[in-house]
Amino acid sequence: MAQQLTAFVWEARTRTGDMKKGVMEAENEQAVHSKLKLQQLQPVAVKKQPRQLSFNIGTGVSINDIVIFTRLFATMIDAGLPIVQCLEILSTQSENKRFGKILAQVRANVEGGLTLSDSMRRFPKIFDNLFVNLVAAGEAGGILDTILQRLSVYLEKAQKLRRQIKGAMGYPITVLCIAALVVTVLLTKVIPTFEKMFKDFGGGKLPAPTQFVIDLSYTMRNYLPYIIGGAIALGTGVKLILRTRKGRLAFDSMLLKLPVFGPVLRKTVVARFARTMGTLLASGVPILDSMEIVAKTAGNVVVHDGIMFVRARVSEGKDLATPLMETGLMPPMVVQMISVGEQTGALDAMLSKIADFYEEEVDVAVASMTRMIEPLLMVFLGVVIGGLVIAMYLPIFEMAGNIKAG
Q1: Residue 53 confidence class, pLDDT cut points 50, 70, 90
Q2: Do residues 214 and 191 lie in contact, with contact meaning Cβ atoms separated by under 8 Å?
Q3: Cβ atoms of residues 105 and 61 within 8 Å
Q4: CA atoms within 13 Å, Cβ hemisphere of 138
Q5: CA-to-CA distance for 228 and 239, rounded, in angstroms?
Q6: Residue 309, Cβ neighbours under 10 Å: how many?
Q7: Quick check: 401 pLDDT over 50?
Q8: In sequence order, which residues have a C-beta less than 8 Å from that of residue 217 and are 6 or more positions away?
Q9: What is the three-class DSSP state of 12?
């Protein structure tokens, strides 16, 4: 059993008398001294790295920060700058100060003897498995600049895809939230005024739609705290259910079967699978490792299970296309293209073409979905808000009709 490594902060003097600092993982202080002497450094001070408590919510690093860093890092490596110097420049010039501190720690770890991929692996919330494995492949093959260029292209396309989906969902969600606010104001502030007016007129029995709206207003005014509490409890319960595997599996399966959003999501799954898998294979990552990374980054339990099923069959010696067809995750055309890519030995290039095609398909599908949702939302708002207004004016219309008849 391997001994657990501990992080040590060290200071050492070079042959020219300059002082250097860094962080190194080792079994004990003696191991740190030995490694420093192998690097022709004279240890001055070595101590365990103190644990720091962090109260930050989330990572504080956006995907845009990662994209910009990867693009600049690739350009610097291609220009021939050493890795440590690149990280130092990027850490000091980063607009995101928190990300700058993380890059400074990565640089210190590299100076301490760790590889770049191992240094990044210590920050899994910032650099995921895909990122770390691609960097490791680039280091092993001596093509880190090429790998970083591919990675930056992949991240930019993935970010574009994510923005399209969020943009398509953001509009209807915003409209529905505003509609809910307007209906709440009508029921709690406007409807009671009409109710008082009807009582002052001393009219008889109100029309059924009007009485329903007044009863709904009464419920909202008197039980609003309980309604809010129930909504919060329901949301919390759903969140807890989604944390379980069965709950998440049922939810993700439902998403893929939705009438409007489902087809768009399926095209997104194909585009993401092809882009990620193609990038990994083109970078020299073994196919089984690539499939495991693709499954972990799928973001959908149904897709994850399907890819892991395919991986198990591939590990048994089967081809990629046959079990992929069995899962039903990919359209037959995509499976046939993958089969051709396997037979010709150009699977990574074929996956890249599939990704390009389906990313364009997602563009068209998102635009169509947005055009479809807009009139449906208008009809929904007209029925709900218009229905409330008409229900409250029905007694007035009846009164006017009675006065005219009299």
Answers
A1: very low
A2: yes
A3: no
A4: 25
A5: 16
A6: 16
A7: yes
A8: 187, 188, 191, 192, 195
A9: strand
